[in-house]
Design brief:
By secondary structure, the chain is of the alpha+beta class. The strands form two sheets. Strands 3, 4, 7, 8, 9, 11 and 12 form a seven-stranded mixed sheet that branches. A five-stranded mixed sheet has the order 2-1-10-5-6. A hairpin with a 4-residue loop joins β3 and β4. The protein is globular. The structure holds the ligand Nc1nc2c(c(=O)[nH]1)N[C@H]1C(S)=C(S)[C@@H](COP(=O)(O)O)O[C@H]1N2 and molybdenum atom.
Length: about 300
């Protein structure tokens, strides 16, 4: 089998977050002083979180392309070929095209971010992701004036993704973010977990991670990213619009129509682990609340 591109990535190769932000400030990137200190707060908060172990993170998954059971992705995702892989970046960009994943990675700074991850089904985990900021990728492609949203698409390959042989969702799985959400420094493209290549069941070889939104926004195994001026359709909104909105920010005060979102169960915490109160924006309120100033989050669920 061909050597995979992150085989030799270890914790030691990962740029410490603070050093990374300093570098970004020096080169005049996205992270201004205010943003850097705000991110510093969430980084401190995140480093107090104890990551779930590898076994839990890679055995309790949602990835409907491999079946609807939590243990289906681990059983079936090994059939997916993830090398070679490329991402088509198109729409309102200066440099549209098919970008080979290896070429993308050679230009990106891979770092580690420990993020709390909250599923809409009211369970949560803490995952040490390795990845790079989506903003860096979008800047590489050059976002055109007038672009307002970013649309994402998962691979369609029913011969390897056996869940795609059933119409449980419309394939491909699609997701979207507003451009300012996509450019936010917390928004990651993840390529690894615990310094190892991301396992297929977690979205190999590259998936989105948006830590202040419910898990279904964090689309896996991405093959296409499109810049657009219209709000793109999303899989769960298309399937059941009354239950899943475009924004899907973690919000303990807005219940899912069929269950409360006020508390969550920590996966891996044992059978008798107490439910935890869910935090506004999944605990990233100080970083992201300003994105939604003046919006009615009850209507924009
Ligand atoms: N393509 C695709 N992406 C997906 C999903 C999916 O079914 N297909 N499930 C989503 C849901 S509901 C969740 S909670 C997370 C789960 O990610 P994890 O298995 O790495 O914990 O992936 C999201 N991304
Ligand atoms: Mo989810």
């Amino acid at each position: 089998m061909a050597k995979r591109w992150t085989n030799d990535l270890t914790h030691a190769d990962v740029t410490p977050h603070r050093a990374y932000l300093n570098r970004r400030q020096l080169i005049g990137g996205l992270a201004g002083a205010g943003l850097a200190s705000a991110l510093g707060t969430s980084t401190q908060a995140a480093s107090n979180l104890k990551p779930n172990d590898w076994e839990t993170i890679t055995s309790y998954n949602n990835f409907y392309e491999f079946g609807t059971g939590k243990d289906d992705p681990r059983k079936h995702a090994h059939r997916l070929t993830t090398d070679p892989w490329s991402i088509r970046i198109d729409g309102m960009v200066e440099k549209p095209g098919d970008y080979a994943l290896g070429d993308i990675l050679s230009k990106m700074t891979i770092e580690e971010r420990i993020y709390r991850f909250r599923c809409v089904e009211a369970w949560s985990m803490v995952v040490p992701w390795n990845g790079f900021e989506l903003a860096d990728l979008l800047q590489m492609a050059g976002v055109k004036e007038g672009a307002k949203y970013v649309a994402f698409e998962t691979l369609v390959r029913p011969e390897e993704m056996i869940g795609q042989q059933y119409p449980v969702l419309k394939w491909p799985y699609v997701e979207g973010l507003r451009l300012d959400e996509a450019m936010h420094p917390l928004t990651l493209m993840a390529t690894g977990i615990y310094g190892k290549p991301i396992p297929n069941q977690n979205g190999a070889p590259i998936r989105l991670v948006v830590p202040w939104k419910y898990g279904f926004k964090s689309i896996k195994s991405i093959v296409r990213i499109t810049l657009t001026d219209k709000e793109p359709p999303t899989s769960w909104n298309t399937a059941i619009g009354s239950e899943y909105g475009f924004y899907s920010n973690v919000n303990p005060t807005v219940d899912h129509p069929r269950w409360s979102q006020a508390t969550e169960r920590t996966i891996g915490g044992g059978l008798f682990a107490k439910r935890q109160p869910t935090l506004m924006f999944n605990g990233y309120e100080s970083d992201v609340a300003s994105l939604y100033e003046g919006m009615d989050l009850r209507r924009n669920y």
